[in-house]
Amino acid sequence: MKIGIIGGGSIGLLLSSFLSKYHEVHLYVRRQEQKHKINHEGILLNQNQMISSVKAFLLEEMMEEDLLIVCVKSNQLKDVLPQLKQKNEHTPLLFLQNGMGHIHLLDEWGTQVFLGVVEHGALRQKENHVIHTGLGAIKIAAYPKENQLLYQLVNSLHQSDFPVYANIDWKELLQSKLIINAVINPLTAIFEVKNGELLTNDYLRKMAYTLCVESTKLLKMNKEEQWKRIQKIAYATADNTSSMLVDIQSNRSTEIESITGYLLTIEAMEKPLTQFVYHAVKAKEMKG
User: Fold this and answer.
1) Which of 123, 153, 195, 212 could serve as a FRET partner for 249 with CA atoms 20 to 30 Å apart?
2) 63 vs 215: CA distance, rounded Å
3) Which residues contact 181 (CB under 8 A, 6 or more apart)?
4) Residue 79 half-sphere exposure toward CB, CA atoms < 13 A
5) PANTHER family from the entry (predicted)?
6) Which residues make up the CATH 1.10.1040.10 domain(s) of the chain?
7) Greatest alpha-carbon span in the chain
8) CB crowding 115-143: b at 16 or more within 10 Å, else e
9) Which one of 35, 177, 271, 284 is the catalytic residue?
10) Do 165 and 137 meet the contact criterion of CB atoms below 8 Å apart?
11) pLDDT given for residue 110 in this prediction
């Protein structure tokens, strides 16, 4: 299968490395420098695995693909979607963004849309170098409703060392990831700490629990069940730096609008800490 991957960040590089084992992969990037480095040096996965089969192109050089996987941040989608329509109007699209604030952009899309969550840990070191910091899975659901193509897609992408699973309910799938992002990402970005400190610092732990309570009430999810998940993930990724903190440290816009901003659009109750972390992250973005 010919697969186009949009976005040369950590997830785009990671997917390109693994999927190129069995598919023809084209990685679409924004900058000429990254395109040149990948095409001349390949992609370095971890410290010693060089992937040379992936070819990089600029977004405006896009060609027809059998599948497009969109890995750019949610706040970059508006710039990317018009170009996807021009070249791949009928190509199935898989979106792998954090949060849910971008879903409305896909409502009138003319082709088959899939939504997914990435549970892998990945850290981009250089333009063409990515570290696989945590083994996980990719879970995919069809949008707006289930169809048979979902299972064909999963069978084609699944690898024993890079698993891909089907999920029936896209909303449940994205909400489960949203809870994690809404608690871990803003707090680590605001206080500039690694994920594990949300458990070892008593004050941060209390704030994390409060954010969990507010978020689960808004999304009508089980509070204690989700708090256990958050603790488990924070423990498993204790030494990791969240993507939102990486964005803040790199003076880039974060995905706060699609994560916490989405929760603020649900007018069901007072949510003071959710409002605070939203404004705090936006303030740090403006400062940067």
Assistant:
1) 212
2) 41
3) 98, 99, 244, 255, 259
4) 12
5) 2-DEHYDROPANTOATE 2-REDUCTASE, 2-DEHYDROPANTOATE 2-REDUCTASE-RELATED
6) 173-282
7) 54
8) bbbbebbbbbeebbbbbbbeebebbbbbb
9) 177
10) yes
11) 72
Residues 225, 164, 6, CA angle at the centre, nearest 5°? 105
| Residue 144, preceding peptide bond in cis (omega within 30° of 0) | yes
Token pair belonging to 111: 């082709």
Residue type, 136: G
CB 119 within 8 A of CB 136: yes
Helices and strands, counts by H and E, the chain: 11, 12
Report whether 273 contacts 225 (CB < 8 A): no
CA dihedral (119, 10, 243, 202) in degrees, to 10, reads 60
- Which string of b and e fits 252-270 if b means at least 16 CB within 10 Å? eebbbbbbbbbbeeeeeee
Output the pLDDT for position 125.
94
Looking at the structure, give the CATH architecture of the domain made up of residues 173-282.
Orthogonal Bundle (1.10)
Neighbours of 1 (CB within 10 A): 13
pLDDT in tens, 44-101: 999 999 999 999 999 999 999 999 999 999 999 988 988 887 777 789 999 999 999 9
Decide yes or no: CATH 3.40.50.720 for domain 2-167. yes
Does the annotation count 177 as an active-site position?
yes
- Show the tokens assigned to 161: 């060392």
